[in-house]
UniProtKB/TrEMBL annotation:
HTH iclR-type domain mapped to chain residues: 5-67
Entry protein name: IclR family transcriptional regulator
InterPro entries: GAF-like_dom_sf, HTH_MetabolicPath_Reg, Tscrpt_reg_IclR_C, Tscrpt_reg_IclR_N, WH-like_DNA-bd_sf, WH_DNA-bd_sf
Domain of life where this protein originates: Bacteria
One protein family per Pfam: IclR_C
Matches recorded under SUPFAM superfamilies: GAF domain-like, Winged helix' DNA-binding domain
Keywords, comma-separated and alphabetical: DNA-binding, Transcription, Transcription regulation
IclR-ED domain segment(s): 68-252
Cleaved signal peptide residues: none
Length: 255
């Protein structure tokens, strides 16, 4: 049996590093992070750059993911069954709720946004498809954790990042929130990832009732929550109806 090809493994490691980093990385940073010689890292980066999987900033010489790789990712998302089954329902939910709608799935300890419908108004908005959100500080992530779609144990052992003063970083606080989500059937985050913003999410189930993703609405606190800071019941109802419809399309008999 043919073993793994080392150069491909190294190239994959570089792509993962660039994908998870918050900024462009220099040659030295890539090499030291992966324990590679600078010459080896440079050769792989030049090859990835040649096929447009990596781009180099002309001013700083640092590297980031290239357009061709991002296009491949988008192509994958287009054929993803969860996303394709959710498109019409997510669009309708955005229109009925007046809020932005996002669909997320677990990926390597984060929430990958696989579909995003803009809030139906003229405000400036940024497309989040392909973005990775923290599990513990997003409504989508907490729903995935609560219903077993993402592992909780390793997360509780880690030092959780506090994005705002409202972020749940203590294991007992997060566990309490997850218990409540399981009881209610939906989860929320209010100013836990960024001040002034809030979100509500609910699980999407596939065959056998297993949770395969989460659907959520998000926006400014004053639009998502009532005057008491609680998620608006009307939004929760619309969200859960859409999630049930997607789940039925995915073959979840319980819905």
């Amino acid at each position: 049996m043919v073993g793994p090809v080392q150069s491909i493994e190294r190239a994959a490691a570089i792509l993962r590093l660039l994908a998870t980093g918050p900024r462009r990385l220099g040659l030295g940073e890539v090499a030291s992070s992966l324990g590679l010689a600078k010459g080896t890292a440079h050769g792989i980066l030049r090859t990835l750059q040649h096929v447009d999987f990596v781009e180099q900033d002309a001013a700083t010489g640092k590297y980031q993911l290239g357009a061709a790789l991002l296009h491949l990712g988008t192509s994958y998302l287009d054929v993803n069954e969860l996303r394709s089954r959710s498109l019409n329902w997510a669009d309708a939910l955005a229109a009925r709720s007046g809020e932005a709608v996002r669909l997320g799935t677990p990926l390597e300890g984060k929430v990958l946004i696989v579909h995003h419908v803009f809030r139906p108004d003229d405000s400036l908005q940024t497309l989040d498809v392909g973005a990775l959100l923290p599990l513990h500080a997003s409504s989508l992530g907490k729903v995935l954790l609560a219903f077993g779609a993402a592992p909780v144990e390793s997360l509780l052992k880690a030092e959780l990042e506090a994005y705002t003063r409202h972020t749940l970083v203590l294991p007992e606080d997060l566990n309490r929130a997850l218990d409540e989500i399981r009881e209610l059937g939906w989860g929320s985050e209010v100013q836990e990832m960024s001040m002034g913003d809030a979100g509500i999410a609910t699980p999407i189930r596939g065959h056998g009732g297993l949770v395969v993703g989460a659907l959520g609405v998000s926006g400014p606190v004053e639009r998502i929550c009532d005057t008491g800071g609680r998620p608006q019941s009307a939004l929760i109802t619309l969200l859960r109806e859409a999630a049930r419809a997607i789940s039925r399309d995915l073959g979840a008999a319980r819905w």
